[in-house]
Amino acid sequence: MTETALDELGPVDYLVVEFPAGASNFTGEMAAELVALVEAGTIRVIDVLILTKNEDGSVDAMELSDIEQLGELQAIEAQLAELLAEDDVVHLAACMEPGSTAGVLIWENLWAAPFAAAARRSGGQLIANGRIPIQAIIASIEADEALVTEGV
Amino acid sequence: MPLGPGRAGRVGVIGHPVAKTAVVAKAVSPGPSPVAKTAVVAAAVTPGRGRRRI
After folding, report:
1. Which of A81, A135, A138 faces B40 most closely, judged by CB atoms?
2. R_g over Cα of chain B
3. Which of B11, B16, B45 is nearest residue A91 as measured by Cβ atoms?
4. Residue A58: which H helix or E strand, with range?
5. Does residue A136 form part of some domain?
6. Packed helices A134-150 and B34-44: angle between N→C axes, nearest 10 degrees
7. Dihedral (C-alpha) B15, A104, A84, A79: value to the nearest 10 degrees?
8. CA dihedral of B7, B11, B17, B18, whole degrees rounded to 10
9. Strands A43-53, A59-63: parallel, antiparallel or unpaired by DSSP?
10. Residue A92 is part of which domain span?
11. Number of CB atoms found within 10 A of residue A136's CB
12. Which residue would you say has higher pLDDT here, A43 or B22?
């Protein structure tokens, strides 16, 4: 990747969505929403893996291209890069429960790329970022409300 | 099923075992329904509603 291309690269994130044994209900809704994000130019999907953690802790990995009926995901599959290495599969599977299946998604936040590039050109450097879970916000609000109730 | 050939022998990008995202126990305790909680969160992040304590 050239220096210019790197400078224009948006932040790259990953997520692992676990489906406990017997709890999956795949209707195509997730694929449709993902494709919508790509078509809107919000994100670019870089890599996708489907992991299964067996009861003995071993992990099986499946490429998107291994799925026969991709449906709407066909367009995404054609654009994928194999960014994740074998070691990454082990690291990502560490958070899975035995018997579960998980989807791993790596994506570039295209919406953030122009701002990030502008920040770099302005001399800024990223020193912290992260995600605040909604559960944490709820807990904070509830803690505030408890303090009010107690008259503190 | 084998991984794609491009994944073998490369340096990974994750670098460490991933920990499961913690669920805040308080948020899943009995109380208002999830819908009601969502409304509370939406109100809390509405511009102009100050609740910052430093």
Report:
1. A138
2. 21
3. B16
4. none
5. no
6. 80
7. -150
8. -70
9. antiparallel
10. 3-124
11. 15
12. A43
**What's phi and psi for A96, nearest 5 deg?**
-90, 150
Give the whole-angstrom CA distance, residue B1 versus residue A6: 33
Residue for token pair 């329904």? B33
Domain-located, residue A137: no
B39 reaches A (C-beta below 8 A): no
In a domain? residue A21:
yes
Chain B: closest CA distance from residue A32 (Å) = 24
Average pLDDT score over residue span A103-116: 94
Measure in Å the smallest separation between the Cα of A133 and chain B Cα atoms.
8
Q: What is the pLDDT of residues A54-78, one digit of tens each?
A: 999 999 999 988 888 878 888 888 8
Give the number of domains in chain A.
1
| Amino acid identity for residue A71 in this structure | G
Would residue A22 count as lying in a domain? yes
Per residue in A8-26, pLDDT tens?
788 999 999 999 888 777 7
Instruction: Kindly give, in sequence order, each residue whose CB lies less than 8 Å from that of residue A29, ignoring residues fewer than 6 positions away.
Output: none
Partner residue opposite A86 with nearest CB, options B8, B38, B44: B8
This model of the complex carries an ipTM of 0.71
